Amino acid sequence: MQRLQDKNRKYKRWRHSPKEKLHLQNQGLQHVLSSNVSAIGRVDEDLIVRFHNGSLYRYPGSGWMMEDMLNSNSKGEFVWDNLRGRIRGVHKVPYEKIGKVPLPQDLQMTDEEIFADMDKRYIENLTGSITAVIAEEMVFNHKLGVMMDKIDIGGVTVYRPIV
Hints:
Largest sheet: 5 strands, antiparallel
Radius of gyration: 17 Å
Number of domains: 2
Low-confidence stretches: none
Number of strands: 12
Distance between the termini: 31 Å
Helix content: 25-40%
Structural class: alpha+beta
Mean pLDDT: 84
């Protein structure tokens, strides 16, 4: 896997080697250029997404999105905007981890690290034009008994449960 230069992109994408592309194809997956999504596929009505750490996730009933995802400029943003993003704390589409399709040069990151990176990028995209000070930290809400992201944007504080 090779890191692309991507001069006009904030997040650098990864390109699979020909051998990796063939391995993914043999697993029924289409490789993609992305900083965090490695490949996608469709099984019946379900969308399958492989991330650069090898993890494979199934998004039931979302197979119809495959072409839109292939045509999107950012596969990671597509995953967040259409699949994993939250509405009132609930993920837009249910999902489940169905295993791994390992490659020798996979990123050594946990799933949680990959998704935290996607969350961080999403917040950066939303707040990129704000000139106020932005601070983020994790805090424990004793009343609810859950960890939360505390995001302060120019004096406005927002809490988001960590799921």
